[in-house]
Amino acid sequence: MVDGNYKSGSNLEKVLETGRFAVTAELGPPKSADPDVIKRKVEYLLGWVDAANITDNQTAIVRVSSIATSKLVLDLGLEPIIQITCRDRNRLSMQSDILGAYLLGVRNVLCLTGDHQSFGNHPTAKSVFDLDSIQLIQMVRDMRDKKIFANGEEIKNSKKAEVKEPRMFVGGAANPFADPLEFRVVRLDKKVNAGVDFIQTQCIYDMERFEVWMEQVRSRGLHKKCKILAGVTPLKSVGMAKYMRDQVAGVTVPEYYIERMAKAEDPKAEGIEICVEQIQRLREIEGVVGIHIMAIEWEQVVPEIVQRTGLRSG
Amino acid sequence: MIVAERKPIEEIKDYLSGHKRVLVLGCGTCVTVCLAGGEREVATLASVLRLAGELEVQENTIERQCDIEFFDTVKEQAESCDAILSMACGVGVQTVVKVFPQKCVYPALNTMFCGSNDGAGQWSENCLACGDCKLGIFGGVCPVTRCSKSLLNGPCGGSVNGMCEVDPENIECGWQLIYDRLRTLGKLDVLAENAQPRDWSRTHDGGPRRLSREDVAGL
After folding, report:
1. Which residues 169-208 of chain B have a CB within 8 Å of chain A?
2. CATH architecture under which domain A20-304 falls
């Protein structure tokens, strides 16, 4: 059952609807069948975020499944956002997973294309990409609002059975830093047309370019059609800053951050400082209604970052 | 060869609507052999388009559309048109785009597969261009192409009377063919071994493929 007029009734949806600045963070499942890693990460985040993204074999490295992790996370009292990539599953598998995740209590899903398998630990694998992220958004949205599967059939167990549709709050990603710049906002528009409810952006370092992109977003009125959460990733070291700049496609790290990280006596503290500054600046941008903190294998710094921005008090 | 078939005429007409003068360009290689886009098919399609009466139609056929060095003879003619309708495979169409970057270029064919001619008007798919040929192991019958599931340890439970469950009337079970062939060769022991997962990075799954050969680079 969904209370009130909510689409999914998820905590994230409610926070965004009330107009409170939302805080989400990323929680990466472990590379082994170790539940303690998940429990520890939930403990870091609990009380500090409105929902946590549970990544789906991120960077094409095998990990505990996003949905299984989400069930553990839910049981520990934290709201999950399952991530689903198009790389590993076709439309049958994705729809079956949406139904299953819904039954386990999941109410948020982030629809992604997924990193190419050549970057991960199984580079000889066959990829699926039956659908792309825009088509996936449309499918999950249609399952909720039109109550149909991708083939047009109603979501019910038999002809006479009641329709029982999975009601998910549907998210997508946007990368303001990939090329061509002028097309990025068109692609966001396509996600909006497909029915996306919220957007989490790629991690932002180049604030100027992000502001240019947000201007384009606002000029099309897209910030009024979906909720945009700005993504940040705290830097741990100058090495990581350079790695993000040179090795991660679609991420730009301006030289002044590289210099700050290089000069810092305590690079981790400096990385957190930079992240806090970025969040304070992002909060001021019209159309940004939340923050998404992707502290990669560094979830324990999320409370400090959130506390110092004053967004939540734990 | 690359096997192709002509698109429905309505789709072709839709592409050309709004254009004034079109060059219907055939290819003398694979699509001539499979009777889809050679000189004769160019003449037929050009007549159909002329009959519709909305276009000025030029026609020509070059030896090979997948190689830019064969385009010299049609450059002038192509420049005089505002659209080019290529009757080559998808490779040819994209080469035409490279040669005439300012022109609207449209495909007249659907490129189907790498296949063989099985008799008059019959063609079948037998190579997926996977980049890692295992025909030497499987008795010269490709499991990746000729099994509907691309199994390397087939046949599955859908093999009945030598036919595939996906279309029992028309699709032979590739694994029945492999089995029969290896039995003939007295090599059935090969099939008792567990074939390991393929390296799909050598196929399109590793991204669009390129081939560079230094030994022929200077020729």
Report:
1. 197-201, 203, 205-207
2. Alpha-Beta Barrel (3.20)
Best A62, A117, A118, A124 member to test B by mutation, with max B CBs in 10 Å, is: A124
Q: Where are the alpha helices (DSSP H) in A104-180?
A: 133-145
CB atoms within 10 A of CB A80: 28
Residue A7: count other Cβ atoms within 10 Å of its Cβ.
Answer: 17
Specify whether the CB–CB gap between B56 and B21 falls below 8 A. yes
Looking at chain B, the domain(s) classified CATH 3.40.50.2300 span: 2-112
ipTM for the predicted complex: 0.86
Assign domain B2-112 one CATH number from 3.40.50.720, 1.50.40.10, 3.40.50.10490, 3.40.50.2300: 3.40.50.2300
CA distances from A62 to A27, A39, A58, A187 (A): 15, 19, 8, 29
For residue range A164-218, what is the model confidence (pLDDT) as tens digits? 999 999 999 999 998 888 889 999 999 999 999 999 999 999 999 999 999 999 9
A117, B205 Cβ separation under 8 angstroms: yes
In this complex, the residue of B197, B198, B201 whose CB is nearest that of residue A123 is B201
Which one, of B129, B130, B110, B126, lies nearest residue B118 by Cα?
A: B126
Rounded to two decimals, the pTM is 0.93
pLDDT in tens, A245-297: 998 888 889 999 999 999 999 999 999 999 999 999 999 999 999 999 999 98
